[in-house]
Design brief:
The structure is a homodimer of 88-residue chains. Chain A contains 4 helices and no strands. The first copy, chain A, has 88 residues and is mainly alpha-helical.
Amino acid sequence: MFWVIIGVSAAILTTFSFVPQIARSLRTKSVKDVSPITLFQLSTGVFLWIIYGIYLKDAIIITANFVTFITLAIVLFLYFKYRKFTAK
Amino acid sequence: MFWVIIGVSAAILTTFSFVPQIARSLRTKSVKDVSPITLFQLSTGVFLWIIYGIYLKDAIIITANFVTFITLAIVLFLYFKYRKFTAK
């Protein structure tokens, strides 16, 4: 039970870790300090973790990384949406 | 062997995913669009993944998240270093 709590806590924190970034980008409509390479690289890595989680048959790894992947896609969408309106 | 490549690729991509963010922050000396809540939340989550990886006895999960944790600490350091010099 302890390990389930650790795993689920890790999953919840990382899963929703980009929600504050989404909120900030929506509020400021500015993304110039955010690295798009970091976003692309992390999305690709998280996708591979999903595949690796399927191999390990670990539902926590699969679910957490899947939702992280979705939130990263939203941050990337906002990045390209606000990039043109961003001051140099 | 295929699954080792998937796991190692996932580890390398996520491990070094914040290196481009470190490079960008060092170059621009501006961090105002980066969410500090995202950085803190992700650091905590990654730390719990290390603990969970120790439970699973999975060296890839442990190593990848450990190095990610270090790079996130560097981004946080740069965040607090450059925050005061950042334009509103």
